[in-house]
Amino acid sequence: MYQWYPGHMAKTKRLIEENLKIVDVVYELLDARIPKSSRNPLIDDLVKNKKRIILLNKSDLADLEVNKMWNDYFNLKGHVSLNINSLDSRCIQSIYELTLKECSDIIDKKRQKGIKAKLRAMIVGIPNVGKSTLINSLTKTKNAKTGNKPGVTKSKQWIKTPYFDLLDTPGILWPKFEDEHVGIMLALTSAIKDELLNHEELAYSLLDILKINYPELLMKRYKLEDIGKDVFKLLTDIGKSRGCLSSGGIVDTERAAKIIIDDFRAGKIGKISLERPD
């Protein structure tokens, strides 16, 4: 079990609670590759009955068929979801159109009261799920700092976009992970720091999923004739294929593990979803 709750994350929880009353809609940003593990269970309690749109970011890196399965899953749960790539301008237009549709009643009420102000939205999500990149695409500027390390956004900030006024909040993780799977999924997608978990153990967990769901992609990427059942042998075979050899011809499994993890994160193995709906 992994436990942490840095002070700034407790502060973020308070910020969300305090500002919900002044926003019209909440965007919950998830990683399309791990929608289950990238959902903070605290968000449901915080957001409650506020209008919410679930944005499945990095959907371009995920399995297209599994993306559809997640859309159906959230729909059955009563949530509206949209597959996006925060770098794609077409997705920004889709977000705007969906927001207008979902908030049509709010817009009508504002018009009846003579209010011309734009909609106010709040964006929430765990660290490094792509909030800052999405905001920069919405504003067509670089107002929000971005980076490939978790915890880039440190405080709330109101941001003007051509579509709506947007409140950004720092990423919020939950106090503890009872399920080791969640910690592994977050580490594989860079939501938590690599140093918290062993690279080889992470690679074994990744390979366990890939050899079941995406064996052809593995074989093609690493020029393997077969993948077998033993993930340790699979890791060493990939290490040999990639020339990860130390003195004496022994495979450097740590180096091989990092290559596999980096390839997955960059989408070089293929479009992969690590989680599917229950």
UniProtKB/TrEMBL annotation:
Pfam families: MMR_HSR1. Keywords: Cytoplasm, GTP-binding, Nucleotide-binding. SUPFAM superfamilies: P-loop containing nucleoside triphosphate hydrolases. Coiled coil: none annotated. Residues 12-175 form the CP-type G domain. One of its GO terms (cellular component) is cytoplasm. It is found in: Cytoplasm. One of its GO terms (biological process) is translation. The keyword GTP-binding applies. GTP binds at residues 57-60, 85-86, 128-133, 171. One of its GO terms (molecular function) is GTPase activity. Belongs to the TRAFAC class YlqF/YawG GTPase family. MTG1 subfamily. Required for a late step of 50S ribosomal subunit assembly. Has GTPase activity. This is Ribosome biogenesis GTPase A. It comes from Thermoanaerobacterium aotearoense SCUT27. The lineage of its organism: Bacteria, Bacillati, Bacillota, Clostridia, Thermoanaerobacterales.
